[in-house]
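Question thread 4412

I'm putting together a teaching handout and wanted feedback from people who do this every day. The idea is simple: show students a protein as raw sequence, then show them the structure tokens that encode its fold, then repeat with a second protein so they can compare. Below is the first pair exactly as I plan to print it.
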Amino acid sequence: MKRHALAALAALALSATALLGTSSAAVAAVPDGAPYVAVGDSIAAGTGNLPYVDAACLRSKKAYPHLLGSMLGAAPVSAACSGATTTGVLQQLAVLDAAGAIGTDTRLVTVTSGANNTGWQNALAVCAVGDPVACQQALAAIADVGDLDADTVAVLTAIRAAAPHAVIAITGYPRLFGSTGGTCTIGGYQGAPAKVTAQQAAIANSIVNGINLEIAQGLQGYQFLYAQTHGGMLDAVVPVDVSGAFAGHALCDTGDRWISGLSSGNKSDGAFHPNAAGQQAYAAAIAAALAP
């Protein structure tokens, strides 16, 4: 098993070198953009996983872009920021472009974006208080994910304009609560156990499914528009479904949790976010999607 793993890692490193052109001499010679650029929300920022390299954005050195960059041999330039919507991602791209951090020499861009467009964090904050009725009402209020498909088209269009030669990897989101037949404990709040019912968990999971579906439809819409202007060709955009990777590792599952529950103190900002193991799962899922 170890020999096979080493061989796979070596193959991935070789393919990454070809994709990114990551030798130090090559990077120094091409100033128009970093080889690997990451944009997105708190998932891409690694929020909740200390230490932070950017306290304002709650951006962690344990975030998946840094893990993936280590696998590919290309340190990322990350603008991911906690709380970012798709509009925020467009602003991240504008800042990167103005700084010359993304451009014609960028070979990979990863993006995780869309959940914050739904008011998802506000609903989770209500659920954290522990009132089951208010929680269920808050979750039901955001069941409509709105124009996320069109917003995804806008994000992909902006990335392609900024990095014309890059492979774009766009990720979805994991279902937070997994499978449960009853009430499950998801941490603590104000000294008491925090729990969600099976119905609340199902609603929350269905919302994530809807977000992922809208992102996928946005990608399809983008590819249709791209093909119209490029002689029927599809763009180099790779979808990354992480729901399978997190199966059995959500808050209500019996396996090791890859998502942080509610807690007090300096780790409270990580609630409902991938922990260190979850960030590793993201990096591995993206690497596997890029491997072909």
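The second pair follows. I'd like the answer to focus on this one:
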Amino acid sequence: MSKLRLAIIGAGPAGIYAADLILKAERDFEVSIDLFDHLPAPYGLVRYGVAPDHPRIKGIINALHEVLDRGDIRFFGNVRYGQDLDLEDLKRHYNAVIFATGAIKDAPLAIPGIDLDGSYGAADFVNWYDAHPDVARTWPLNAKEVAVIGNGNVALDVARMLAKRPDDLLVTDIPDHVYHGLRDSPVTDVHVFGRRGPAQVKFSPLELREALHIEGVQSIVYDEDFQYDQGSQDAIDSNNQIRVMVKTLEQLRANPQEPQDRRLHLHFFASPVEVIGQDGKVAGLTIEKTKLDGSGGVVATGETTSFPIQAIYRAVGYFGSPVDKIPFDAKSGVIPNQAGRVIGEDGKNLQGVYCTGWIKRGPVGLIGHTKADAIETIGNVLQDQDRWWQPELAGEDQIIKTLESRNIDFMDWAKWLKINSKEKAIGEALGRERMKLFDREEILKISKG
């Protein structure tokens, strides 16, 4: 009977689901799994990529916690692949590796002025308000009028966090520096711009409802933005989510909200064409109106409008990052693969190397898609016994010896539980469920008791 020693790089949902599913899969050999992450905390974008006022995310974290808390998957946080360990190290210790490194950078938006001072990537802002250990403690919140480019859930998250009254976030896990930054923001108007119409948005109904019912914020839509063609009607008729969202937006259109000191504007059929600058800073945004082409797509009209804004956030998607010594498709932001088997430069599958999640298929889809991804990838790992590596240091304790010999201050599960308890204790003292720790050195110090 053979044994599979498997390394997984990335401890977000994709990596944890892959580990869990491979342990539950039918097989006639033993499996041991080590899960590595460059962060000292598990859970990836569920912890560091979702707005703190989303209570349902706690349910996902609780489920992931239960998987890691069983004790049959080892967690190694604060270990950087490509720096602390490389591919040759993995080959010496494991039979195979699955890369589940996700996508954490912003996709580019190629329009004039996008690099002006006051222009930001949404992912960077999300990292700030989610207290990512590797980002600055401050964020320049000095704009009264803000533009958010995009029609997906991240755009709504960013818009909601900018517009929301900061005191309403004091029930969440945000640390003081995030609260104080948002509290001191002079924002009055947040404009969300999308290229297409109400029947083509990529929001989820829940996200949309949350955005349109923020205490103390007036949500505004515009009559000219409600156009439908046959493609739109087909989408409304065939997709319940689209039908619900169009109904929600139409209800707001028919029943305008009472004026408030802060406003959230939703603009459709608005394609950004230029960020206007003044003295090197963002001073406005020019959009070109689009119109439906009959099949649900849009075409340009040539008609432009400019809005005074002092900050712009592009939320046009996430983008994957290259992985050390692994092929990378720089155009798509993914690792080239065939059903999770990584493809080398010669077009053949690389022995022992696999991928799953957003680094495999791009940053689309929800948690359910991540599970389906993992099932496909682990099926191929289990099939490929004759193509696994033959490690010379296959013992369970060998990787620990290697990390310790390099003075790598890794976070194991027992240490993480101390951090988990500390966050809950700090939060409890403030009447919250938890308060997120954000300083990497402090997290490592507390983990040692």
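Top answer:
Good format. For the second protein you could add a caption like this: Residues 342 and 348 are 8 Å apart (CA to CA). The first helix runs from residue 13 to 24.
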